[in-house]
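Hey,

The postdoc asked me to send both predictions to you directly instead of through the lab channel. I've kept everything plain text so nothing gets mangled by the mail client. Protein one:
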Amino acid sequence: MIGNYIRLENGKVYLHKSFMEIVDDIECLVFDCDGVLINTNNSYRKTIKQTLSFIFKPFPQRKFIGYKEIEKLKFTGIYNNDWDSTYALALFLFTTLSKEQTKELLEWLNIWRLKVADFKFSKNEFKLEFESFLESLNTDPINDPEKYSINVCREKGTFDELKEFINIIGRPTNVQQSLLAKIFDSIYYGKKLFQKIYATEPPIKILKGNIEIERLHLNKRTLSLLKEIFNSKMYLLTGRSRISIQYKMKDIEEYFDVKKSFFIEDMVREGFGNVNLFKKPSPTPLLNLADDQTTLYVGDSAEDLILAKKAKEVSNKIYFAGVAKPNDRIRIYFMESNTDLIISSVNMLPKVFKNSIR
């Protein structure tokens, strides 16, 4: 026993005392995909860095955005969509430029060719500005960084250049209207998948996408055991497209009810009404999938936990399982937040429900 948790499977499972009383009542499972079913740590983070490197090609300050900075941004709890993450970081980087440098950047973006710039930037100064930027992010992944950038650029006299920059890269609402989203998806999907999804050529020359380095977290035995317990009541709630998941999980329809599942990227691309009602951390999709059943939502991020808490405010039949390795910062956050269940891997779920074969 550690605080309110019962430690099981040599520390691979932490079961909250209150959740232990209802674990056998769980009727259906809803899964986040990235980081839960598929290991995407390298692919998406790498794509964010490479997209920023392309946009800010004339300037070496892009090197200051590393995995640590991306993780800090993610930990704000409002960045599940990586178009939004990349857009926010691009706006921040723009605020670090002088007026002369913004003009050079805009010239590069407008004519798509490299310009050499003499640019020096203190890493300590960058850290202070980045922390200030993070503090300005509250609830809106697009509007909050825009407000920060507008305030900074007005003080620096680069507001007009910022407006042109945003006009060029485009707000990340869909690939058709956003150059940033086009570049990101080209780098992530690679040429063939990009063509399959969008029926057009990617805007930059690239063969293999970063999706190729992703690996599955869960194994077939886990899927078979969970299907035996929950039958067809397993769903996906993910920011990814259905094509990208099927590319990594060929037999997805054998285990998950994909017709009822939510693939947010597809909804964005198809112009599905007010997508903000469905983008994480909105609880609407989870509540729709739960349909008043006792439901366990499995995620791996602060945003997933926030989503589950919002859903629980509407229905007390919603519970959350956080996936986190023993030394991960997010694991401490889950424990401090009294998460119902903490597991080191999605493959530990059958252990939790081993007495629940129905």
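Protein two:
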Amino acid sequence: MTDKITIAQTGFGMFGSHEVARSIECIVKYGVSPFLGRVGYAHLARELAEIEFEMAAVGARSKTSAEKAAEQYEEATGKRPRTYFGETPWENIINDVKPDILVVATPDDKHFNPAIYALKRGVHVLCEKPLALHVDEAMKLVTEAEKQGLLLGSDNHKEYDPDHLYIARELLPKIGPINYARAYLEEPLDVSTSTFKWVAEEGKKGTVYATPFSYVGIHWISLFQNVYGADNAGNRTMTPVYVSGHGQKNLLRERYGIDAIDSTVVDVVYDNGAKVVFENNWITPEEFCGMVVNQGHEIVGANGKIESDQQNRGLLYWIGKNPPGGQQGKLSQRTANTHFFRKVYSLHNSLPDSYSGYGMDAILAFITSAARVLRKNTSPEDVSGTFIDGRSQILPCAVIEAGNASVWKNQDLLKSKLIPDASCKLDINNGITLTFTDANGVTETETIYDGNID
């Protein structure tokens, strides 16, 4: 089949160059069919086997990053995609290449512009999480996609973690309903001091308003909303109504001169009385044993408890100072989560043949659904529920915006030597309001978002 589905990607940072790019490389080389059993769509393998894919273009802010992306794709697939760079590379990509699908892997606060530009011009869009940092942006993206009859997806890979699906389908029905829970995801210090230039460099010029909560807390927020907080038919069983967030500024500001939040603790209360505490940071020391993050959660239900340690999945190792290859190892205990994303080796061959893991699955599910719409005359309505769609992310984006709003208001209150009591009320029909006590002891209210958030 010569009529290939064309994919373009904008953004080629830490995640875009690894899990995103490696997943797309596999799909370009082999199609979607070999991987469909992972996401419950093995029954579509024969039907979709003939569909071919092409990575047509890559875009990045710098020429160096764009060329690096093209080289990586060429090495993996045998064909070099066209390169674009600058402040808005997606515009030339859409206008020149006219891809079927645009994958947006730009920094968290820069998803909206490329996504809306592509949707308005008839291109299906897959965004890295979070879909948006503000509810109004998420609503505009969803509205535009539905108006154009296009797919809008979000790469929230934790919703495909087999442990999470087992918890949702097998355990929660037995221990539920949820009374309270705690979820944590702690990123390495390198992320905020080196890897993410939009934190490490911009934070030395002024305040960085993105937080660890918006960066990685969205994983847990979406999981609790759309997997743990929904029945098997996808109907919502709990809705967030109250959010209170607190952030800490110590290490990044004092030691590295970066004006950014070290860590966040955000409480979310749902309409069924459940309370979940979300803990996130991007200052975990290099010496920590996890490769690469510390993550897990605990759920207490009315009839039992679940503990899920996702940093330690059972593989422990130590490497001494003088391994045979000459590379000095770490002296501390290490763990590896091979379930997330890994090279797949044939049994007696040292060369990797492919990649696999739940880090690939949200991308695979979206591209599979887009392929059915593009080549199999399937309607967007008929693929609803077969991938993580934009509409499912409106409430999680609302919680992220509410959490960040209360985190920063509480920072202001602390600076003024006031009690940091800022919190947000979420109302499905009326939006988000922030409440706090001012210096005169008067309760003040600010509107964060005015409108429907369903």
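Summary for protein two, as requested: The first strand starts at residue 5 and ends at 10.

Thanks,
C.
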